[in-house]
Amino acid sequence: MKYRIVPILVICLSLLWKCEPCADCGEPVVFDPFISLVFIDYDSLSDLDISLLETNDSLLTLTTLRDSLVDTIGVWNNLLIAYRDSIENGNSDYVDDTVQLDSDISMATADLGEVDTARKYTNVYLTTLQTARTGVNSGKILVDNIELIENQRDTSYFDSTKTYRLPLLMDSDFTSYKITILGESDTLSFSYEREISTNAQRKVRMRVRNIQLVDYTYQEAPVVDCESDDCLDNEVLVTVYF
């Protein structure tokens, strides 16, 4: 009987060896699908767009006024030269006109200076608005909290960032989130199809495809951008206007 122990031991060791992770056996299944979210302050963006439009209109009006003043001063200067030449040639009829025209040119030149100053500050303000809009449009904000509704798991945030990565549930074809920003909460819900894939390194992954937005409580519809027609996880960017 004691000689039967050896083959039994060999069989057991063989089974244990086959169960060890190795290059030939492939990697364990990895569960890490996610979607990326960017949050845009829609109200602030709208207000900035209105201010930009009004400021551009003001700048256009100032530019038009400046061009008109430059043209007028040019015409008056040419006329003033003609008057003075006539006076030098002994014609005194234009003396009073020369004095008045000289005064008008001085006033128009002062007006031109004020317009140039106004254009300078308007351009500075316009640049400030454009910078602010770029900042808002980048989506860099602080989200208070994101809750994965199905399992009531939530995450709080303490630093602003441009993009938030949200995990997708792998035991369901549906994931929904409760998102709180500045104390206001809204929800997003997505549906998708699950599948198992293996890459060139034999790593087995649970992936999802055909990600679709199925419900939301935001006033503006979130925009879902997919890198491919399959709309795979980790390749989806959702822009949320809050």
Task: Tag the structure with descriptive keywords.
242 residues, 28% strand, disordered N terminus, alpha+beta, 4-stranded mixed β-sheet, 6-stranded mixed β-sheet, 2 domains
Your description of this structure?
The protein is α+β, with helices and mostly antiparallel strands. The chain contains three helices and ten strands; from the N terminus they run H-E-E-H-H-E-E-E-E-E-E-E-E. The protein has helices at residues 5-19, 42-88, 95-138, and strands at 30-31, 34-40, 145-148, 153-156, 164-167, 174-181, 184-198, 204-216, 223-226, 236-241. The strands form two sheets. Strands 1-8-7-6-3-4 form a six-stranded mixed beta sheet, with no helix packed on it. Strands 5-2-10-9 form a four-stranded mixed beta sheet, covered by helices on one side. A hairpin with a 2-residue loop joins strand 6 and strand 7 (184-198). Helix 2 packs antiparallel against helix 3 (95-138). Mean pLDDT is 84; it is low at 1-29.
